[in-house]
Amino acid sequence: MANIRVVATEPFEGQKPGTSGLRKRVTVFQQPRYLENFVQSVFDSLEGFAGATLVVGGDGRFHNREAVQTILKMAAANGFGRILVGRGGLLSTPAASCVIRGRRAYGGIILSASHNPGGPEGDFGIKYNIGNGGPAPERVTDAVFARTQSIREYRTLDAPDLDLERLGTQRFGGAEVEVIDPVADYRDLMARLFDFAAIRAAFAGGLRLRYDAMHAVTGPYAKAIVEDELGAPAGTVVNGTPLPDFGGHHPDPNLVHAKALFDEMMGPDAPDLGAASDGDGDRNLIIGRGVFVTPSDSLAILAANMHLAPGYRGGPKGIARSMPTSRAADQVAERLGVPCYETPTGWKFFGTLLDAGLATICGEESAGTGSDHVREKDGLWAVLLWLNILAARRQPVLGIVREHWRAHGRNHYARHDYEEVDAEAANGLMSALRGQLGALPGRRFGVHEVTTADDFAYTDPVDGSVSERQGVRIGFADGSRVVYRLSGTGTAGATLRVYIERFEPDPDRQGEDTQTALAGLAAVADELAGIRARTGRAEPDVVT
Ligand code: G6P
Ligand code: ZN
C-alpha cells in the first residue's frame, strides 16, 4: 500500500520487559530504531489485529510526543484500522485501561516510566496492554523479547506528524486516528462507581482535600473530577499541570518525594485527606490528618468499606494482594468470608483473577490499589473511594484507621530499599538465602524463631501458569515475617527490597511507632541475609 515503508534494522541487546514493560533511560530510547524495534516486535507477537483498534497514550514525560508519533505511524503501517490517542498524546495508565475496555480495542500501548524521574536525563518506558485493558501476561512479553532478538525490519508510514491537539477523527494512511479527550471516558466510569452526590455534599459541607498531582498526568483528571465535577474548591489540586520533567521532581508519591504534602497533613491546619499520584497515575498516597495510611492498610480498609460505594454494594467477592504486601487484607477477607489471593509482585498477575470474577479489589505495598473496574491499578480511583467512604462514615481518617486496627489487628509494616546495589552482590545475597532455606526453620535469632522459609512460587488458579523464584519468605513463630526480593523495575544496578511485618492484636499496643515496633525484626533481617556484609550498606536508602 502507498506510503508504507519497510525499514531494515538489527536487534538491540536487553529489550526485555520487566515488572511493568520496557524501561530505560531516555537517551537509550532516543537511539535510532530502538523504539521502532520494540514496537514492531510487539506487533509481530500479536495476531489477528488487521482492521482492529489500538489505544495509544502516555504520561506526558519527555520524549512522549515523539514516541507517540512513531507508534501511530507504525500502527497504521502494520494494519490497525483505528487508533485512539489521547489529546496531546496523554492518557493516564488507568484511563488507557478504561478506554481499551470501554471501546473494545484490541489492545493498547502505554508510554510511561511510572514514578521514575523524567526529562532528557530521566527514564522512559513502553508497555503493551491486551484487550482486557491489563498489562500483557508473561507469555506475551516473553514472545516480544524473543522477537527483539531476531528482528530484521519494521514497517512505518511515510507521513507528516499527526496533529495531536485536534479532537476528532483524521485519516492516516490506511487507518483512522481519533484524538480523544483523555479524561471523558474515565470520568464517566468514576461517576458510575462512586456516590458523586454524597461526595459533592461533603465538599459543600466543608470536607477538605489536598491532591498533589506532582506535575504528572493526573492533574487534568483530578481537576476535571474533583474540582469541576465534585465541587472541591479551586486549588484543591496542586502541581496540576503535567510537565515533561515533572518540574524537576521525582513523581513518586511516597513520604520522601511528597514531603510537602506530608508536612501539610501533619500540620495544624491539615485538610481531612491528603493524596498524591505518580507519573502515570496508577499509584496513590493516602494521608489523613495526622496519620499516614500505609498502602497495605489502605487496601485492607478500602476492602472493608467498599460496600459504601454504589459500584461495590455487595462488598468484594475476593481480595488479592501481592506476596510482599502485608497481610492486613487477609484479616478483612477472613472476616468477610471471601478468599484472599497472594500473587507475585506485578499488577499483571491480578488480571486473570479479575477477569474470572474471583477478586474485586486488589493492591500492593508499592502504593497500588485497584478493582475490577479496569485492569490497572488506579491512583485517582483510590482517592475517590476514600472520599466516598469519608462522605458516608463522616469520621476522620484517623478514627477509621484506629477502628480498623481494633477490629482486625494491626500489621506493623515497613519496606527497606537498598538502591543501586552492585548486581553481583545482590544476586549473591539472594542465592545464599535460597541456599539456606532448608536449614532455617528451627533456628533462633534472639527472641525470633524461624518456622517457615521458602522461595515464593505461584500457580495462577485460572490459567495454571507457574511463576517461580518470586521472593524469599521467612516466617517466625510469633507470626512476623520478613521477605526479600530484587526489584524488577530499576534501571541502574540492583535494588534489594526487604519487607518487614509484625502483627499486633493488642489494641493498647497498636499505637506504637512502626519503626520502633519493627526494630528488632529489622536487625534479624540484616543478620539473616548478611545485608551489611554483602552489600557494604549499613542503612537502607529508603524506608517506606
Ligand atoms: C510497578 C508494578 C507493580 C510493582 C511495582 C514495584 O509499579 O506495576 O506491580 O509492585 O512496580 O515493583 P518492583 O519489582 O520494583 O518491586
Ligand atoms: Zn505508575
From TrEMBL:
<keyword id="KW-0460">Magnesium</keyword>
<comment type="similarity">
    <text>Belongs to the phosphohexose mutase family.</text>
</comment>
<dbReference type="Pfam" id="PF02879">
    <property type="entry name" value="PGM_PMM_II"/>
</dbReference>
<feature type="domain" description="Alpha-D-phosphohexomutase alpha/beta/alpha">
    <location>
        <begin position="15"/>
        <end position="154"/>
    </location>
</feature>
<dbReference type="InterPro" id="IPR036900">
    <property type="entry name" value="A-D-PHexomutase_C_sf"/>
</dbReference>
<dbReference type="InterPro" id="IPR005846">
    <property type="entry name" value="A-D-PHexomutase_a/b/a-III"/>
</dbReference>
<keyword id="KW-0479">Metal-binding</keyword>
<keyword id="KW-0597">Phosphoprotein</keyword>
<dbReference type="InterPro" id="IPR016055">
    <property type="entry name" value="A-D-PHexomutase_a/b/a-I/II/III"/>
</dbReference>
<dbReference type="Pfam" id="PF02878">
    <property type="entry name" value="PGM_PMM_I"/>
</dbReference>
<dbReference type="InterPro" id="IPR016066">
    <property type="entry name" value="A-D-PHexomutase_CS"/>
</dbReference>
<feature type="domain" description="Alpha-D-phosphohexomutase alpha/beta/alpha">
    <location>
        <begin position="185"/>
        <end position="287"/>
    </location>
</feature>
<dbReference type="Pfam" id="PF24947">
    <property type="entry name" value="PGM1_C_vert_fung"/>
</dbReference>
<dbReference type="InterPro" id="IPR045244">
    <property type="entry name" value="PGM"/>
</dbReference>
<keyword id="KW-0413">Isomerase</keyword>
<dbReference type="Pfam" id="PF02880">
    <property type="entry name" value="PGM_PMM_III"/>
</dbReference>
<dbReference type="InterPro" id="IPR005845">
    <property type="entry name" value="A-D-PHexomutase_a/b/a-II"/>
</dbReference>
<feature type="domain" description="Alpha-D-phosphohexomutase alpha/beta/alpha">
    <location>
        <begin position="296"/>
        <end position="406"/>
    </location>
</feature>
<dbReference type="InterPro" id="IPR005841">
    <property type="entry name" value="Alpha-D-phosphohexomutase_SF"/>
</dbReference>
<protein>
    <recommendedName>
        <fullName>phosphoglucomutase (alpha-D-glucose-1,6-bisphosphate-dependent)</fullName>
        <ecNumber>5.4.2.2</ecNumber>
    </recommendedName>
</protein>
<dbReference type="InterPro" id="IPR005844">
    <property type="entry name" value="A-D-PHexomutase_a/b/a-I"/>
</dbReference>
